[in-house]
Amino acid sequence: MNPLLATLQPYPFERLRHLLADITPNPACHPISLGLGEPKHATPALIQQAMVEAIHRSPSGLSGYPATVGEPALRQAFADWLQRRYQLDLDPNTQMLPILGSREALFALTQTVVDRSAGSNGQKPLVVSPNPFYQIYEGAALLAGAEPYFVACDPARNFAPDWDSVPEDVWARTQLLFVCSPGNPTGAVMPLSEWQKLFDLSDRHGFVVASDECYSEIYFRDEPPLGGMQAAFQLGRKDFSRLISLTSLSKRSNVPGMRSGFVAGDAAIIRQFLLYRTYHGSAMSAVVQAASIAAWNDEAHVLDNRALYRAKFAQVMPMLADVLGLALPDAGFYLWADVAGCELAFTRALYAAYNVTVLPGSYLAREVRGHNPGRGRIRMALVADTAECVEAASRIRRFVLGSTL
Q: What is the pTM of this model?
């Protein structure tokens, strides 16, 4: 067996299952899960209809092998969306590819980019990411033969990564940098000045920047979040050198089961990524492609979805802000709360008393120099319908205040 598999840590949700396994929750409360960031809003009818029509219109959609590069109409839908959303003009033939959801693409991109032979003096190449982070960043780095390096985040700046804390010799060994904006779990959005800093570092040291933007369409401010390629363009970097942006329909369009998204950016990286994916077997079904085209070409359902989240957060925030020290995030559908104590004990006690599941923040981070930035925090995913999220918030408030049912 691949010995690198032994370096992987259990996924946060597996750890959560073990944490709660010996607890029988209060039977007077129906279960509510805020642990998993899985969208629960209804899938738009236009997407379902497009998939059904594709099956009936073209039987070969299921009987034929799809091309890894995707149909021209799909890549054009990507390009059209990038133009509408970010005012970017990219070549649909050379600068974008369909992906089967962002998780597999983040993993596959790492295998494409990392050159494990490039380490010096017995040191492995580095893959840098924020801390806390999405665990696929770590697993992808380890299985590519690289070493993860976690950048400390600043609680005073909404857990924004402290890029200035990274030593120059670390940047010199870095081959890939993962950026998540809007961030998971904090919802923080990177400003243009931060992108400028990272692009300057990439120019100096030659590493690739992978911008994970799967939460970009759920936001609470008037101005939509700045994207990585949009930032590059505004800074005069029109060839998107060493930059790949990844996005998906899962959160934007409430179709996590479709496993559909795309990558775009540096044409030279896209070319090598296509080569890798041709062998990897990552081709999107023609039926899913048809549904994806319908989704990317429609913004009405995205506006409706965003309105649902805004209305939901407007009801939940007043219930939890004072008892958990919360502020409205910039974007995304998470709340990153300080529980003023052990997050594991909080999670267990809340589950036992009120049958509400949350995710311990320490499961989303790693201990670096004796400190885990998720310690003492929990992540709550407000993905269920408004009534259920409000009920969960009511129970959490009573729990924190020591009230009873």
A: 0.95
